Amino acid sequence: MAIRRKVSEDAGAAALAAIKQTLGSADPATDFAALPRTVRATGVRYLLEELATLAPGNSVEVRVPPFGVTQCVAGPRHTRGTPPNVVEADALTWCQVALGFATWGEKVALISASGLRSDLSDYLPLF
Asked: What is the mean pLDDT of the chain?
């Protein structure tokens, strides 16, 4: 089943272009934080949608507060309460890993990942 996109391809591409520029700078944390909130939110949501497209399923919940959440990776589906496989990261870390500016292993200390299916290194970077 295909995911229902909320972020248009054009808006997502524009946000990712701005984010990539900041992640390649000398001070990515400061430059990323200086981006307008709407750009950061659009970029994060677009990357979450891309992950759900690449790894369809409902066994892992990926959270990037306060911007978005998605379910992905095939496997047992949870129906109530906290899912058994949860990945949570801040927006900067998520963008760095999803866009290939850092690896999952390099940022694993900044990523909260619980459950057997929570290692997303096989799916990242997305592009």
From this structure: 94
Give residue 20's domain range: 9-114
> What count of other Cβ atoms lies within 10 Å of the Cβ of residue 57?
15
Q: Per residue in 16-57, pLDDT tens? A: 999 999 999 999 999 999 999 999 999 999 999 999 999 999
Structural domain contains residue 122: no
How many domains are there within the chain? 1
- CB atoms < 10 A from the CB of 103, how many? 13
In terms of Cβ atoms closer than 10 Å to its own Cβ (0-12, 13-18, 19+), residue 51 is buried
Task: Report yes or no on 56 lying in a domain.
Answer: yes
